Amino acid sequence: MKKLLKTILTSIVILISLAFIYTMGFRTVFYILNNRSIANEHQIDFHLSGNGISWIKEGNTQTLFFIPSSREIAAEELYGSWLQDVHDKYFVNIIIPPFDTEGISPYLWEQNSSPAKRSKTIDFLYELYSKQLGKNNSITILTTGDGSIQALELAAKYSSMDKLILISPVHNSLKTRGGTVFHKLTGLPLVHYVLPWLPEFFGVDRIGSFDILNDKLNEQFGTVYGKYYPSYRNMAFDRKVKVETDSQMEDLEKIKVNRFFIIYGDDDLSYGLEGFERMGDLLTTGGSEVSIMRVPQSGRMVLFDNGRDRILDLISILLQ
Predict the structure, then answer these.
(1) Residues 95, 191 contacting (CB under 8 angstroms)
(2) What is the C-alpha end-to-end distance of the chain, expressed in Å?
């Protein structure tokens, strides 16, 4: 009994200590964590990425304005080959707004970022670019993850875009869908910081960075693209995303009438599936035309999961 009590007290002390470290924000701890690996992933210097893409060819009448998730700062490396194919094969201009890598960073010690700061950069670039286009030019906005925040803000302000394709957009129905108790615990801030010290078997089955259901594709992503994807989440930024999303969901009916395509995986671990449907219903109530694609056997990262080819084919068709 005394041994059990001692174990419980020790555990409580450890949790309190971790909470204290997290609250005080000691940069040393954050630095160590960001230089540790989960399942042999490697980090790169994200300050060397995030410059954006501006591939414009005179005579093209279509533009793909791509707003990637805040976790996809290295979008050039993650999507560059596909975007190059779209640019060359379908004669589509490609715009990816640059990231403010000093303010928006996956590094845990840089907690001063916010979606609002990113929105200003994207709004400025979109307005500047759209004003230069002729009447026969059309803009398609494509987003992944929390890039939907900025896309919906643009949709509320401008009527110049032809359609919006929201892939795994954020909404206010958070629901961890992991099957085990440990999966559910990963939604807690402190658990993300403890992951590097856990045995390797805790890093399997989408516990780490990648919500990719297909095991083979999950492993392939980690091998090929893992170094471009942050292993640790900036929890302060995530909280700000939630605040922005909660506010935005209340005003979806006020967004200017447009065409929306909402695409999500049916096994998204982070967001409740009903939230994607409700987002579509609210946009429809506001007068917009909404098409929803629920991708079977796919996690949140549908562009790297079982639905990849199907989604890319759809985007290519919509750009023609």
Answers:
(1) no
(2) 71
Rounded to whole angstroms, how far apart are CA atoms 300 and 314? 18
Scanning the structure block, which residue is given the tokens 């009916």?
Answer: 253
Residue 110 is predicted with a pLDDT of 46
- Token readout for 301 is 């990262």
pLDDT at 246: 84
* Bridging pattern class, strands 138-144 and 92-96: unpaired
CB atoms within 10 A of CB 159: 9
Record the tokens describing residue 107, joined without a space.
């590094």
Distance from C-alpha of 173 to C-alpha of 176, rounded to nearest angstrom: 10
Where are the strands (E) in the chain, listed by range? 53-55, 62-67, 92-96, 138-144, 161-167, 259-265, 289-295
**Cβ neighbours around 100 below 10 Å, total:** 15
Q: Which residues of the chain have pLDDT under 50?
A: 23-48, 102-111, 178-180, 183, 187, 196, 200, 203-208
Could you tell me the pTM of the whole model?
0.76
What 8-state DSSP symbol labels residue 279?
H
> To which residue do tokens 């805040």 refer?
70
DSSP state letter for 93: E
Q: Choose among 299, 310, 306, 21: nearest CA to 145.
A: 299
Sign of CA dihedral 96, 100, 103, 107: positive
Complete domains list, the chain, with CATH: 46-175+229-318 (3.40.50.1820)
Measured in whole angstroms, the distance separating CA 200 from the mean position of its chain's CA atoms is: 25
| The predicted structure's pLDDT at residue 139 | 95
Q: Is 151 exposed, middle or buried (0-12, 13-18, 19+ CB in 10 A)?
A: buried
Helices (H) and strands (E) in the chain, counts: 11, 7
